Amino acid sequence: MSTVLAAHAQTHFVRAVLRQRGFRWLVAVRVVAQIGDGLFQGALAGSVLFNPEKRAGGLAIAAGFAILLLPYSLVGPYVGVFLDRWRRRSIISVGNLVRTLLVLPIAFYIWRGEHSPVPFLLALIVIGLNRFFLAGLSAATPHVVPDRGLVTANSFAGTLGSLSFSLGIGAGATLIKTVLATSFHGYALVAGLAGFFYLASALLGRASFGPDELGPDDADRRGGSILTALRETSLGTVAGVRHLAARRGAAFLVLAQATFRLLYGVILLACLLLFRTVFNHGDDPTGSFGTIANAFLAGGVGMVIASFVTPALSRRIGGWRWVTAVLIATGAAILGFGLPFDPVLLLGAVFVTNLAAQAIKIVTDTALQHECADEFRGRVFSINDTAFNVTLVAGMYLGALTLPDTGRSAAVLGTVALGYVLAGVGYAALGGRWARRVGDDIAGPAGR
């Protein structure tokens, strides 16, 4: 009976946020752009991981993620100062227009199969703009959704965005396997196709919102020249860190999510290596497409379920209890489904891990929006984004140093599973104690 009531309550909240015109357009902008992200990043990864003309080991894969994620992540908090200065509608539209222009030379370099630093540098900018774009969307959400609907809005938008990203990857893989060739030429065409989606997202964002509709508010927007802003960047970042540290409920969630991502990096690398070697019964790396497609499907189902149950459960039992539960459940799933190293059972671990990842992200984003002042949200989300990416890359390097070339190591997976359980216990002790002390969580009759 309680499950039925929770389902009805969640349906009510989804309908409530979807009645907000601005939120509907913000979701549309996100969905279109993230389909492009899936096409583009899938083409980049495929040209390295699943291209018969090129093979990469664990360290090379980790290095690739580092090259694509770390440069922006290291300057992310500084970029957050500009999120609190510039119109977020401009960030959405101009950022995607720039990405539209940059994917064309990248596709050209992939087509030619050249070993040049130029496409990597351009890819850094494209993916860096993507992180800037997503942080801007998160900072803009409270301007189109009331506070009481934030948890549902984050759940709905985040899940649709993740599924759109997976749809882009799946569409690119299908094109490669059915219409295009598994070669540099095929991956280049898929990368070029992403430009159309970036352009559509830019035009949609420009047409859907007024110049100041997505914030920051005039009273909070910082003035002065860009040079002045650059000189103030360090002070602004420190202020953002202090602001976040003072909101301990949100700060503990950022730490919990960073720990999750560190361990997730190890698991991600292990899965990539397993799918390409142990679970691939041929010498052609493209033979692992089938098992990887199943993994994407299992992960997508996990994210959808997390999107549905997280708002209802976090309101009912508190966000900190739900985060604790999914952290411990992830450790148990890796032990139960991962250690047998069976491709079918491993899908269970992928399902639970992605459910947990999405649940923690929803609760963390909502806590940041709920607890942090609007004039600090850009910086706070950039700080969180930095931790999100840096810990993933660190986890992949940790995996590259500890995993064999096949990715099969019971000791490493067992250690990761224990790490998730300890993370859950630690977060319950810190975040849970704080939530009980101050009596403020994303749960409550207000339905945040």
State the major sheet. Answer: none
Q: Look at the helices and sheets and give the structural class.
A: mainly alpha
Could you tell me the CATH topology label.
Answer: Growth Hormone, Chain: A
Unreliable residue runs: 1-8, 444-448
Please bin the fraction of helical residues: over 70%
Please give a structural write-up.
- With 448 residues, the protein is mostly helical.
- It has a single domain (2-438), classed as MFS general substrate transporter like domains (Growth Hormone, Chain: A, Up-down Bundle), CATH 1.20.1250.
- Helix content is 81%, strand content 0%.
- The chain has 14 helices and no strands.
- Helix 1 (2-18) crosses helix 6 (150-178), helix 3 packs antiparallel against helix 13 (374-402) and helix 4 (88-112) packs antiparallel against helix 5.
- The longest helix is centred in the first third of the chain and has 29 residues, at 21-49.
- The radius of gyration is 21 Å and the shape is globular.
- It starts with a helix and ends in a 10-residue tail after the last helix.
- 55% of the residues are buried.
Quickly describe the structure.
With 448 residues, this protein is mostly helical. Helix content is 81%, strand content 0%.
Keywords, please?
disordered C terminus, 448 residues, mainly alpha, Growth Hormone, Chain: A
